[in-house]
Amino acid sequence: MESGNQSTVTEFIFTGFPRLQDGSLLYFFPLLFIYTFIIIGNLLIFSAVRMDTHLHNPMYNFISLFSFLEIWYTTATIPKMLSNLISEKKAISMMGCFLQMYFFHSLGNSEGILLTTMAIDRYVAICNPLRYQMIMTPRLCTQLSAGSCIFGFLILLPEIVMISTLPFCGPNQIHQIFCDLVPVLSLACTDTSMILIEDVIHAVTIIITFLIIALSYVRIVTVILRIPSSEGRQKAFSTCAGRLMVFLIFFGSVSLMYLRFSDTYPPVLDTAIALMFTVLAPFFNPIIYSLRNKDMNNAIKKLFCFQKVLNKSGD
């Protein structure tokens, strides 16, 4: 719809994708494989924890919830990426863009809060083991899990509502492979300084969350190193090594994406960081939680055995 020299934007065009003639199909199948692996891997972890009563404790309940969130976190962006890779026009509707931003960042916020909860859980388990059962009660764990999701989805809602009311009347090209806050805000035909202030607040929140988790793990490592027996140290390290790796991958990619020293990166580097943030980090999480965890491996094997028994009984 025209208004003077300006037209109302009804859709956004992604410029971070290669064109079909430049071989975008070559990226389609690797991305499809990674997405399928992420979904199946996290479903296995979630189902294994739910089915195996030996894993019904705070640590594994948090892991299963994290895997559940990861499924939807990647689903918020990757299916649209796959669609755009095989389309001539790399587009998304305005409403689709706002919904993608909301669910992607809300799920990411929930995961960040949950990782903080998991760090605190390991801190209590290793630094105060005698009071662990008294502190980390099933009721508290349920409240922490629910609180992570509720707070994660509520904190971004006002900002997305404000962005959706902004006028978009100029260029409609998003220099990225998914809808993100800053690239979309840069296309608005009005002053967005108040919303950008919220982004600064979010950046400070990311830093504070990172420091809380980092200090928790520093304290955990300090306590572990004081354990006299090597077997005890190894056992203690094994309970938190996976969570520490996930923490480093998650917040490392978040920092590269949002805590930048420069406003602009070269397009290739920008796309590479986005892929690391949205695709590669979730890809490694099921590997870390399954391959490096004996209890989880056993639970997944039991899940497959249970499925075989059901198939035989059905025959």
UniProtKB/TrEMBL annotation:
It is a multi-pass membrane protein. Keywords: Cell membrane, Disulfide bond, G-protein coupled receptor, Glycoprotein, Membrane, Olfaction, Receptor, Sensory transduction, Transducer, Transmembrane, Transmembrane helix. It is found in: Cell membrane. It comes from the Eukaryota. The chain crosses the membrane at residues 25-47, 59-79, 144-165, 203-225, 237-259, 271-291. Its main location: membrane. Belongs to the G-protein coupled receptor 1 family. This is Olfactory receptor. The lineage of its organism: Eukaryota, Metazoa, Chordata, Craniata, Vertebrata.
